[in-house]
Amino acid sequence: MAHSRIDLEELKKGFAEYPPIMTTQDVAGLLSMNIQEVRRLVREGRIPARRIGKAYRFFRDELVLWLYNREPDRT
What we know:
The structure is a single chain. This protein is an alpha+beta fold. Helix content is about 45%, strand content about 15%. It has a domain at about 20-70: Winged helix-like DNA-binding domain superfamily/Winged helix DNA-binding domain (Arc Repressor Mutant, subunit A), CATH 1.10.10.10. The longest helix is centred in the last third of the chain and has 10 residues, at about 60-70.
């Protein structure tokens, strides 16, 4: 069955309520993951993040593009 792909502009609108720079905890809640899983994805280079001091920060616009460009789940 073919998956309909959401429009990038619609995805951006859905993220408008989130802050432009997010913490690991913010992203974990957004993606329904625990913090350790988000950190692991960052270490593996699978999710866009920046290290600022000892903490990771996630730019909303980069996350939107990352989500948009991901392959749909095959399950």
